[in-house]
Specification:
This protein has 335 residues and is mainly α. The protein has two domains: 72 residues, no CATH class; 246 residues, Hypothetical protein af1432 (Orthogonal Bundle), CATH 1.10.3210. The chain is built from 18 helices and four strands. The longest helix has 21 residues. The radius of gyration is 22 Å and the shape is elongated. It starts with a helix and ends in a 5-residue tail after the last helix. Bound molecules: fe (ii) ion (FE2) (2 copies). One fe (ii) ion binds next to loops. This is HD family phosphohydrolase. InterPro entries: HD/PDEase_dom, HD_GYP_dom.
């Protein structure tokens, strides 16, 4: 089998990745490339017990770059890796698309844990993974292009949160032309991911009929901004960036937003970024009360609304979502 068709069917398992597998029961079928016959053969079945001797043998195969899994088992593999995100930073065998998907799965799970139990433990686990994402983007800001290509269309508060983080992070890296501190990037990502955390206190039935809101529902939804802020206070989070995402993502340049009817000059950059990313991600998702907009339509709707959304950012959104491929060459990469 030629190298090319080998990598079409199989993904290599490096020693690092192998070490992250449960020792006795690998989560995926293992395949070994046999040099003599130039064929790949199944060596071990997923979830079945590996004897000590076979473990040593498998480690040897991995060290010699002869150990593989089927690409079609990628989903199982990705969800395994999403629990050990740090590995992404040391592996170079993944395509950026694969990495983006692993990040997506990881953050959807972390956010779900945190929304179910918004206390310090799950917050720290989430923040740790966010710092891995920040490091990944910081090393090559052009990678945000692949993050924005993995946003999901089916709506839930968790997918909306991850979508908004990916799109917002991309807008932020573009608008700052790659000139940001790694530590700020962590807060930017966390703020975007948590912008709607207060929504966990809004009853589900109100969210589902949000197309036909009565005043009482509207107040209940609008309260998610303050509810989110109080949750951050309880967790003693003081980052201005995180708090601005929460407080300002529904403010609009012309003062028509909520909760404080701020005008353009009183909304921070990250507040404006979060507003554009949030609105875009809401538009392109399916909801029970309306059809999703397709991506170009959503971009144009926002770009036309210059009274409410920062035009510099909506233009960048168009570059990002419509001309995607060009992004890489236009990015300023931090050395
Ligand atoms: Fe919101
Ligand atoms: Fe939102």
């Amino acid at each position: 089998m030629s190298g090319e068709s080998l990598s079409e069917t199989y993904l290599q398992i490096s020693p690092n990745i192998l070490e992250s597998f449960p020792k006795f029961r690998p989560p995926v079928d293992l395949y070994v490339f046999d040099m003599d016959t130039a064929q790949t053969k199944k060596y071990h079945k997923a979830e079945e017990r590996l004897s000590k001797d076979r473990q040593a043998e498998v480690a040897g195969f991995a060290a010699e770059s002869l150990l593989f899994l089927l690409r079609e088992d990628y989903r199982i593999y990705a969800s395994h890796l999403s629990k050990k995100l740090g590995l992404i930073l040391t592996e170079d065998d993944f395509t950026p698309q694969e990495v983006a998907q692993i990040f997506f799965i990881a953050f959807r799970d972390r956010v779900e844990d945190f929304f179910g139990n918004p206390t310090e433990g799950p917050f720290k686990a989430m923040a740790k993974d966010v710092s891995i994402l920040a490091e990944y983007v910081w090393a090559d800001p052009g990678r945000v292009e692949y993050l924005t290509a993995t946003i999901h269309k089916e709506y839930s508060l968790t997918t909306h949160s991850v979508n908004t983080m990916f799109v917002g992070l991309a807008l932020f890296t573009l608008v700052t032309a790659g000139k940001f501190r790694q530590a700020d990037l962590v807060d930017v990502a966390l703020g975007l991911l948590l912008h709607d955390v207060g929504m966990i206190q809004v009853p589900r039935f109100v969210l589902d009929r949000a197309g036909y809101l009565v005043q009482r529902d509207r107040t209940s939804i609008e309260n998610h901004v303050e509810a989110g802020e109080s949750m951050m206070m309880r967790l003693r989070i003081q980052s201005q960036i995180i708090l601005d995402c929460m407080r300002q993502h529904h403010e609009r340049l012309d003062g028509s937003g909520y909760p404080n009817r701020r005008f353009k000059k009183d909304i921070s950059l990250i507040g404006k970024v979060c507003a554009v990313a949030d609105s875009f991600c809401a538009m392109v998702c399916e909801r029970p009360f309306r059809e999703p907009k397709d991506i170009p339509k959503a971009v144009v709707t926002l770009a036309k609304d210059t009274a409410k959304y920062e035009p510099v950012l909506t233009k960048l959104l168009a570059v990002l979502m419509i001309q995607g491929g060009k992004l890489r060459t236009e990015m300023t990469v931090v050395e």
